[in-house]
Amino acid sequence: MKLKMKPAVQMPHVKVRKKKGTPVPPQVVLQPLSKRNISGDGGKAGMKGGINEGLRLCELQYGSYCIWHEENREDMKDSMVKKLKDQLFVARAYYPSVAKIPAQNMLTRDLRQNIQELERVLSESTTDADLPPEIQKKSERMEATIAKSKSVTMDCHNVDKKLRQIFDLTEDEANFHMKQSAFLYQLAVQTMPKSQHCLSMRLTVEYFRDDSFDQELPVKYSDPTLQHYVIFSTNVIASTVVINSTVMHARDSMNQVFHVLTNGQNYYAMKHWFLGNTFKDAVVEVLNIDPFIPDYYDKTTPSHLNLPTEFRVSFHGINNASAMHSRTQYISIFSHSHYLLPEIFKNLEKVVVLDDDIVVQQDLSTLWSLNMGQKVMGAIQICSVRLGQVRSYLGESSFHKNSCTWMSGLNVIDLARWRKLGISETYWKLVKEQVSKKEGSAALASLLTFQDLIYALDNDWVLSGLGHDYGLSTQSIKKAAVLHYNGNMKPWLELGIPKYKVYWIKFLNPENQFLNECNVNP
After folding, report:
1. Euclidean distance between the first and final Cα of the chain, in Å?
2. Backbone angles phi and psi of 454, in degrees to 5
């Protein structure tokens, strides 16, 4: 199996040539998705099963951009102008060869007249609205003349050369626009929406203006008998939806404590927001993770808050001479910041970690009674992606090639056993080894750290893919306890998949003053 690593945003031209001979072994391409900004990839019927090969190849190269582009395809503008330009180019390609044939003087004259006529029209028109009323007849005459030219026996070398030229030009132009569109898509994914930036700034200012309701409950924050949920986030409305949806479906919110871990830049905005809003009987603590970082990070790791890392894993290979088979999986795993949990919550023995791109639809209290045996973490396993399939990214570390990968999003963590087994120390050791040897991917060290230590949660707990897969059924969405919007098309972005946004947006208060003033309307 051939493996190759590619950068997060890479947009070269995709060209697949079919070759005869021995089958090409399947390839695995693992690409980090765009990192979410922390500093301030169903739909149409048959999409999942009957997706065309061109779209598969596009997704392999550009990820969820291709699916988004296909679902949001617009009708071609000024199609007649484009058609006339194509006719003009083809006519010019045939004209020199036809003109050399004495018996085709009349056809030569017709070609010349039609070429001159279209040149005049296109010199005066740039859009379909500018074209004269009789343009359809002119186009039909040109089409008939080109058809006659094609039926004439001639030296095709010049025609072939010209037509190859238009093919190459068109292909280059299409590739340029594809790269440009994919770049703009990635830019939209990585950039914080203006409305949310406004919200963060407004809340920060208000925090320093108003100190009248600083009512925190530090006793509950460290009480090990309560249900503690941890959220890593820099996004006010995303973390709000997670907390609100969890509380709204809880049988008893009195026992719920939420810890929102954010960075220094967003700390005061988060703090003001959660102090000013209530979530039934649950309490919310906002923590600035920055003070914890210098003691546990070193020069080989970034000294800032890291949100869960997302990857696109593509499998592709040619099994026969005429068919390319490919499939794509999206996985998200713990980042560096998650390995600070035992130190941040020294008095706690168990926590549930929630990503900020999820929506809770059922009561989660049964997670606290799970018997995980000797396992450290409960997580959804992804057995369609196994460690052996991404071995090139794992370095020389020993691992079981048939071990399943796992997902962040909803994770039950036994902190007592984590400390006993030295999970954090194991992780940092793996990261240092991979960085020093310049092999593998340090971002995937989490997969090795928890090898044989994962308790597999029932798949009904989480439905993933709402950030990239247009083909999820309504039935499966309603059945899932947790919806995970993993992928690039997050529900708070304009690029989010519209039919999935309704499950997310209903947990925001549309009457909130700050949301209205900043025009936050996902």
Report:
1. 42
2. -100, 130
H/E stretch holding 329 = strand 323-333
49 contact partners, CB below 8 Å, separation of at least 6: none
Q: Are 29 and 316 in contact (CB under 8 A)?
A: yes
Give the neighbor-by-neighbor strand order of the sheet with 482-484. 358-360, 482-484, 462-464
Classify residue 273 by burial, with Cβ atoms within 10 Å: 0-12, 13-18, 19+: buried
pLDDT digits (tens, 9 = 90+) for 185-220: 666 666 778 888 899 999 999 988 876 655 666 788
Integer angstrom CA distances of residue 34 from 232, 474, 492: 17, 28, 15
| CA dist., res. 3 & res. 37, Å (int) | 29
DSSP string, 268-328: HHHHHHHHH--BTTBEEEEEE-GGGHHHH--TTS-SS--PPEEEEEEEEEEEETTEEEEEE
User: Measured between alpha carbons, how far is 437 from 434 in angstroms, rounded to an integer?
Assistant: 5
Gyration radius of the chain's alpha carbons:
29
Q: What six digits make up the tokens of 203? A: 């809340």
Q: What angle do CA 283, 286, 289 make, to 5 degrees?
A: 145
Using the CB atoms, write b or e for 215-245: b if 16+ within 10 Å. eeeeebbeeeebbbbbbbbbbbbbbbbbbbb
Residue-level pLDDT at 2: 37
Question: What residues contact residue 208 under an 8 Å CB cut-off, 6+ apart?
Answer: 268
Q: What are phi and psi of 377, to 5 degrees?
A: -140, 140
Which pLDDT tens digit goes with each residue over 46-71? Answer: 333 444 555 566 665 666 666 666 66
- Tell me the two tokens of residue 91: 């006519």
Structure token digits, residue 125: 């028109």
Task: Show the tokens assigned to 31.
Answer: 């690409």
Which residue carries 């190459």 as its tokens? 168
